[in-house]
Amino acid sequence: MTKEKKSKPSKELPLGFVDRQEKELLVRDFIISNIKEVMIKYGFQYLETPSFEYSDSIGKFLPDKDRPDEGVFSFKDENKWLSLRYDLTAPLARYVAKNFLEIPKPFKRYQLGTVWRNEKPGPGRFREFLQFDADFVGTKNLQADAELCVMISEILEKCGLRRLEYSIKISSRKITEELFKKINLNDDSQKLTTLRALDKIDRLGWNGVKELLGEGRRDKSGDFTKGANLTSRNIEIIEDEFKKKKPETQDLIDLIKIFKDYNFSNFEFDPTIIRGLEYYTGVIFEVDLKFDVKNNKGQVIQFGSIGGGGRYDNLVNNFGNYDAPATGISIGLDRLVFALMQKKEFKVKQTKPVVICVFDKNSMKKYINLQTLLRKAGISSEIYPGENKLKKQMEYANKIKSPAVILFGDDEIKLGKPTLRNLFSGKEKPVEIKELVNEIKKII
RNA sequence: GCAGCAGUAGCUCAGUUGGUUAGAGCACUAGUUUGUGGAACUAGGGGUCGGUGGUUCGAAUCCACCCUGCUGUACCA
To answer: So where are chain A's domains?
Structure first.
């Protein structure tokens, strides 16, 4: 090694990226297997699109900027900008536009995939995360929207949630559209600010939202956010409209009727859900968890939704002249995993190998024979993967939470009977090789 | 991005009004019967006190700038 101080490579992870460990991954696998089962039952087809897309295909144009990296990760490849996908909907629209003539209409597909966002991460929010999406493309029928809600509900219950522990909130972009007509609001940026303000009711309450609809709001840290500058009369009208308990737009009335036909009642009308501002055109919905979620310090945090979706009738049209109204749902799987792992009764089985201890390298063939015997019987097992004293081998077995170790040293070999030690109870006994599999099965 | 707070061992933190070789618990390593884990005991390794510059006889401690993190806020297709 050179004497000069070399700057060492960093062990830290990039902001917003995390290592995920087995326990979490097993919960995720469990959820994914439930999703796949339900998707097959509902007749969706499985699709995978690449992580990268051309930036302009997924809605990032910005020709005047050096890098199109507002919110997305991008790089230049042979003079063309590529971006890591930030959701699965934009790639779907691209896929449908590209393969429009070949695919069935309507087109139903589901997809699981990692997406990336170049934004500031928050509690439970990362810059890389796994999404699950299911969409209907090419139908205006609200039966599709209804079915998505019924379906996600079935997935959640398969994952062990009870009816009271989650709820589907529904609303429609038509409500705000009509509201804007009513108060004669035409300025696009004012509309956008209004929507953004209304989206914050759950967090700021009506008082905070009214400040944002008016001149603006100063937050706890003293930072000031400019408001939409609506008149106080218009703010009143909006508040009245938003406090109505029953939907009045035709799409929601129709949707609820279909819910009835499905016998589906675990939804609530909530005009304050806004969702993505740019592309939704009609019915929107959000999946909320109703139980407390804690952070790693044990504090209850405002967890918010684990996903949502709605109708986006114009997204595919952006690529050409195909008329493909669509509706879809996306679920943030990592958030769902995080929430499920907090439920006490929720456990997934982690299978750990029986450890065969090594006394003498010359007896390796005997250890391999035992290992083969166990593995043939479907028992997870390993020969201690190192060279160490028995004490170290025991410590290793304990550390990996192995259920049992097999001791096959000189004494046992003479008798032809390995010693089986149960690591939960600490008890051990000699066992005939023929009986080994059965005895281990009693332990695990 | 804006704002507030913070940064001392792998982790959680202590470090008195600036004063010698910077500490604890947990974790780690090695031992306490060279064939036995989870407990206990003994010993040990590990820190340019986030970085750079400044003030001072002397800085983890004071000042400036930078970096990083947390929280709020904004954006979030």
So the answer is: 22-49+85-185+230-341, 354-443
